[in-house]
Description:
Oligomer: single chain
Strand order of the largest sheet: 1-2-3-4-5-6
Shape: globular
Order of helices and strands: HEEEEEE
Mean pLDDT: 85
Amino acid sequence: xxxxxxxxxxxxxxxxxxxxxxxxxxxxxxxxxxxxxxxxxxxxxxxxxxxxxxxxxxxxxxxxxxxxxxxxxxxxxxxxxxxxxxxxxxxx
Length: 92
């Protein structure tokens, strides 16, 4: 029983940590809420996973440009279909 509780606690901890490492923001064109994984400032040429909360979908996108503003970071990504998206993320 003791080991069962330990495995259950470890599983919940790993599951919760997956969502704790995402970076929240919104899509500038659609105003849909999004999150970027991994939770770090990307640079051009990196790939990031973009999860859209409105449609409950995820895409792996190529980062084209990153610009810092006073309170936000704008990340321009190219989706697999070729469309460009500007994601406005919480400031770092």
